Amino acid sequence: MSLVARPSDARRAALSEATKGMGEKGVPLVSNFFPLDRYFDAANRVLEAFNTAFDARRLDDAYVYGKRFAIFSLEALPKHNYYESPRYVSIRRKNKQDMTEVILKLEKVAEWMDDEEKEKERQRKKREAEERKREEERMKREAEAARVRLMQFQMDVDKKNRDMKGAGANVQKSALDKLKRMNGSEDGNVTDAFMNDLKRSFRTSGRRESETTDDNLAGEQPPSRNINDQPLPPPLPVPLPPPQHPANTSGHSKELPPPSYNAIMDSSKRDGDSQTSKKIPQSALEQAAAISAAAAGGATRREHQSLRVSGSVYANRELERHRRMAQRKEKVLIQAIKSQIHNEYQQLRSSKRIEVISLSTHQGRFPDSTNGCAVISPLVVSHHLRSRSSVSNDEISNVIDKECGPLLREIRGKLKLNGAALIIPSDVHDHLVDKKILKQDAFIGATGGNIMDRKHLAEFLRLLDSGEKNSHARCRTGAALFFREHVVSLVKVPAADGKWLFDLIDSLPGGNGMATRTRCHDLVALETMLRHYASSRFSESNCDYIDKNDWDDCMADFDPRVFQCFVW
User: Fold this and answer.
1) How many whole angstroms separate alpha carbon 35 and alpha carbon 423?
2) Which residues, in sequence order, are bridge partners of residue 537?
3) Cβ atoms within 10 A of the Cβ of 485, count?
4) Rounded to an integer, what distance in angstroms lies between the CA atom of residue 350 and that of residue 133?
């Protein structure tokens, strides 16, 4: 059964595009390594914006805000491993009630949009009818003007013909007067005798002319005739009316060019001045689309500056972003950055400044270690800090296969999480400190941000290498780095001649199906290793989001580039 089309279908479909570009299929990303409270707070801020737009009947904004709140509450929040935790019972219940109210209000917004689109369509048809009427009147005026010109032209031609005939009669009368004077008649009358002589002369001339014609056939030349004896020429033919446009001198048939765009716009403006009916103002989406079209059409700087969108434009965020991006210098796409980082990584691998070592096990090899990276990583760091030199490969394997399982069950049970739930790192750290596995006084600091930003990454490398104010430059350190739903360990290992090595330990299966220990021989190699590790974990939708969105601290919880690290 097909659904009946609604007048606002196209408008709402265009607004739905604004929900894309945020995570998978337009749904914002929710990370299990961030507290669920922060995501509920974000949902409540969107809900408040929706209610404000709904009360003000800013329909475009209300539709986008309401749809984002509904999708986020229905699809994103339940994916968080803490969503069913008893601590969130009350806030979860309120969120569901808010979601029901928003869906009902969204239907009301759609009805209001239908009414607006019907009115816009009625006004459009009215404008088209008025335009057709003006066009018909214009054609009638032009036809009447052409008829008047043709009549005037015909009158001018008739007058010229009459003048030419009068001139011919005057010539004949002048010739007759000359004959009268030759006959000696002073009073101007021709005598009967003269006329008889003239008739005889014509008959004689006729016989002579016939004889002359026969002689000519025999080869003689005809006698010359006086120009005055030639008959008068016929009247001139009636010329065609003059063309309405300049004649085409190229020799080829070619239509005249259409009127200029400015002329059309000026005419439309004059015609529109007489309209007094109230029009529904353009929506923010339509205004933003007009600005985008003007920018693409090459509007001058002054014309472009005069284009402004009135009201809230948040609902048209994607359109506004594309307009701004078109004016900026072309941005380097993340795929190009990934390719460059991969080449740098391979060069360091070839020069042995980065070495990858396979371990004998991996996370998930035994069921108890599944999704246990949040526990495995700080446990590896704690073993490294207690060791004389560095955590060994056997110790890492023992942490993965044996030590993490009991701790995972204990922490999940305390938080009332299911058996395979990911655990927020801060909850793990609190538990390990309580168990004296990690020491609070050994904690150096925490940092984070955009892992693809060298400045943000440099802050983490500084803490790991030397600590605050160079306080740990000659000490072993370790860190747990959280990125893209996974946690890895980094340890600073002493080497010969007072140098330091840096190892990245990943409990997930690597290229050969086992956990890996990647050794970097200097900080430059470690930075390249981390950028390669991060960029290789970006999905296609992550890359699309990165290309469309600059880093924003306020949106960090939803950004695929965000990372956090704790250093001891």
Assistant:
1) 10
2) none
3) 15
4) 79
- Across-strand partners of 469? none
DSSP letter at 508?
Answer: S
Q: How confident is the model over 353-380, as pLDDT tens digits?
A: 999 999 999 999 999 899 999 999 999 9
Kind and range of the H or E element at 47?
A: helix 36-55
The dihedral built from the CA positions of residue 365, 366, 371 and 376, taken in this order, carries a sign that is negative
Residues 60 and 116: beta-carbon distance below 8 Å: no
Q: How far apart are the first and last CA of the chain?
A: 63
Write down the residue that tokens 């689309």 correspond to: 289
Quickly tell me which residue has 């063309």 as its tokens. 243
Quick one: pLDDT at residue 426? Answer: 85
- Nearest-5° Cα angle at 237, 234 to 241: 160
User: In angstroms, rounded to a whole number, what is the distance separating the alpha carbons of residues 66 and 105?
Assistant: 8
Radius of gyration of the chain from Cα atoms?
A: 48
Residues of the chain with pLDDT under 70: 1-3, 18-27, 168-330
**Scanning the structure block, which residue is given the tokens 């214009």?**
138
492: which 2 tokens?
């600073």
* Contact by Cβ (8 Å): 489, 479: yes
Q: Provide the mean pLDDT of the chain.
A: 78
Q: How many CB atoms lie within 10 A of CB 333?
A: 13
How far apart are the C-alpha atoms of 460 and 479, rounded to whole Å? 9
- Rounded CA-CA distance 127/494 in Å is 81
Q: Helix/strand/coil (H, E, C) string of 115-152?
A: HHHHHHHHHHHHHHHHHHHHHHHHHHHHHHHHHHHHHH
Non-local CB neighbours of 47 within 8 Å, separated by 6+ positions = 65, 69, 98, 102
278, two tokens: 């109230």
CA–CA separation, 378 and 568 (whole Å)? 10
User: Which spans in 351-489 are helix H?
Assistant: 373-386, 393-398, 404-415, 425-434, 454-465
CA dist list (Å): 258 to 262, 323, 337: 12, 31, 49
- CB half-sphere exposure, 55, CA atoms < 13 A: 6
What is the tens place of the pLDDT at every residue in 290-300? Answer: 544 555 455 44
Please give, one letter per residue, the 3-state secondary structure of 179-244: HHHHCCCCCCCCCHHHHHHHHHHHHHHHHHHHHHHHHHHCCCCCCCCCHHHCCCCCCCCCCCCCCC
Spatial distance between the Cα atoms of 539 and 103, rounded to a whole number of angstroms: 31
Q: Name residue 494's beta-bridge partners.
A: 500
Cα–Cα distance for residue pair 422/35, rounded to 1 Å: 12
For residue 256, what are the CA distances in angstroms to 248, 250, 259, 340? Answer: 9, 13, 9, 56
